[in-house]
Amino acid sequence: MKIDSGSTAWMLTSTALVLLMTPGLAFFYGGMSRAKSVLNMMMMSFVSIAVVGMAWVVYGYSLTFGDGGGLSSFIGGFGDWGLVGLENAATADDGTGIPQLVFVAFQATFAIITVALISGAVADRAKFGAWVVFTLVWATLVYFPIAHWVWWSDGQDGGKSGWLFHLGALDFAGGTVVHINAGVAALALVLVLGKRKGWPKEPMRPHNLPFVLLGAGLLWFGWFGFNAGSALSAGSTAAVAFINTLVATCAAAFAWIVVEKLRDGASTTLGIASGVVAGLVAITPACAFVTPLGAIVLGLVAGAVCAFAVGLKYKLGYDDSLDVVGVHMVGGIVGALLIGFLATTAVNDAGADGLFAGGGFALLGKQAVAVLATLAYSFVVTYVIAKVIDLVMGFRISEDDEAAGIDSTAHAETAYDFGTIRAGIGSGATAAAPAPAVPAKKVEAKG
Question: Where are the transmembrane segments (predicted)?
C-alpha cells in the first residue's frame, strides 16, 4: 500500500505528543509530592522512558504485536526482535498508510507512560534501583501481554488475534491496557511497600501546585495525540476522538470541583487538575465509540466518581501517595464500562452498539470481562514481581533516608537550595566572603 503522507505526518506528531505526556506526568507527580522527594518522583518518570524505550525496540514490540504461533491469543513471538527487517520497510502498516516504524514508535510511547503512571503510588519510599528493575520486569510480564490481548490482530478475516480482541471488547486507546492496568498494579505495589512514615496522621500536602497545573496541561495537550492518534490516520475517526477528548475532560474537571465545593466548601486547583486527568483517563477507551454528548455524560460521571474514590485510601488503609488507584484504576473502569451503555455505531461502525443504542447488554458483558481480566492478571503478577524484588534487593528505602528525603539520599541533589548563595570565579575558587556589615547612621531629629 502506498504511504499516506498526511496520515504519516499526523502520526509522527501524535508520537511526539504522547512522549511529551511522560515529562508532563513528571511535573504533575512532582508537584504533588513533597519538596524533599520531587526530583526522585520526576526521575522515576524519566527513567521509565529510558528503560522501556530500549526494551520496546529489542523485544517489546515483537511480543506485543507479533505472532506468537500457538500462544498467539495470549502473547506475541520474537519474529520482529530488534526491529530487524523493519528499518527500511517501504510497506505501510496494516493498510493504514503509515510506515511500520511510525506505528512502532507511537506504541512505544504508550508502553513508556503506562509504567511511569505506577510510580505516583509509591512516592517518597521506593529505592530507585529497585524501581528501575521493576520497570523492565513489569513491562515484560504485564504490559506487553495485556496490550497483545486487547490490540493485536493479524488483520485476516477469521485470522489470529489477542483473546480480548477476538471477544469483541472495545478499548480504543488504552482504558484497560494503560489505565486499569497501571492503577491496579499501583495498588499491588503499595501493598508490598507499605505506608509512608507518618501517613495518614501527618499532613503530606503537594509542595508545588503550579507544577501540578503545568503537568495537567501538558498531559491534556499530549492526550490529543494519545487518543486521536490511535486512529492511525488523519480522518473522521481521529476527529471524533479529538473532540471527545476535549469535551469529556471539560466535564470531568467541572464535576470534580463541584463535588469539592459541595463536600468541602471550596474548589481547589489540585481538584481541577485531578479532574482533568480523571476525564482524560475515562474517555481514553471510549473516545472513538461515543458521541460528543455521550462524552460529556461520561466525563461528568468519571469526574464525580473519581473525586469520591480518592478518599477510599483513608477508609481502606492503603497509602496510594498520589491517587493512582483512585484516578487511573477507577477512571479506567468507569470509561471501559460506560462503553457498554454509550457506544454507538452511528459514530464508528468499527465499534458496536451499547445498551442505550439498542445493542442490549452484550457489549457491557464483554467490557466487564476485559476489565476483570486486566484487574486480576495485573494485580497478581505485579504483586509477585514486587515481592521478589523486595526479597532479592529490597524495594523500600530506610526510615532514616525517608525522613531525610529521598532526593538527597538517593540522588545527592535537592530541588531547591534555600541556603546561602555562594559563587566563585575560575576553577577551585573559594566562596565569596559575605559583605561587611555597615553600621547604621544616627539620624538626628530636625525641629
Answer: 12-31, 38-59, 101-123, 130-152, 172-194, 206-226, 238-259, 266-283, 289-312, 324-347, 367-386
Look up residue 9 and give its three cell numbers.
505526518
Task: Return the bridge partners of 126, or none.
Answer: 396
- Identify the residue whose cell numbers are 504485536: 65
Taking a C-beta distance cutoff of 8 angstroms, is the pair 286, 334 a contact?
A: no
* pTM, full prediction: 0.91
d(CA 117, CA 183): 8
Neighbours of 361 (CB within 10 A): 12
* HSE-up (13 A, CA, CB side) for residue 246: 6
Q: State the pLDDT at residue 93.
A: 53
Domain boundaries, the chain: 5-411
Q: Encode the chain in three state secondary structure.
A: CCCCHHHHHHHHHHHHHHHHHHHHHHHHHHHHCCHHHHHHHHHHHHHHHHHHHHHHHHHHHHHHHCCCHHHCCCCCCCCCHHHCCCCCCCCECCCCCCEHHHHHHHHHHHHHHHHHHHHHHHCCCECHHHHHHHHHHHHHHHHHHHHHHHHCECCCCCCCECHHHHHCCCCCCCHHHHHHHHHHHHHHHHHHHCCCCCCCCCCCCCCCHHHHHHHHHHHHHHHHHHHHHHHCCCCHHHHHHHHHHHHHHHHHHHHHHHHHHHHHCCCCHHHHHHHHHHHHHHHCCCCCCCCHHHHHHHHHHHHHHHHHHCCHHHHHCCCCCCCHHHHHHHHHHHHHHHHHHHCCCCCCCCCCCCHHHCCCCHHHHHHHHHHHHHHHHHHHHHHHHHHHHHHHHCCECCHHHHHHCHHHHHHCCCCCCCCCCCCCCCCCCCCCCCCCCCCCCCCCCCC
Based on DSSP, count helices (H) and strands (E) in the chain, helices before strands.
18, 0
- Confidence (pLDDT) at 97: 86
Topology at the third CATH level for domain 5-411? Ammonium transporter fold (1.10.3430)
> How does DSSP classify residue 153?
B
Check residue 417 and give its pLDDT. 84
Grid cell for residue 276: 482533568
Can you list the residues of the chain whose pLDDT is less than 50?
A: 90, 420-447
Closest CA to 252 of 228, 231, 280: 280
- Write the pLDDT tens digit of every residue in 117-141: 999 999 999 999 999 999 999 999 9
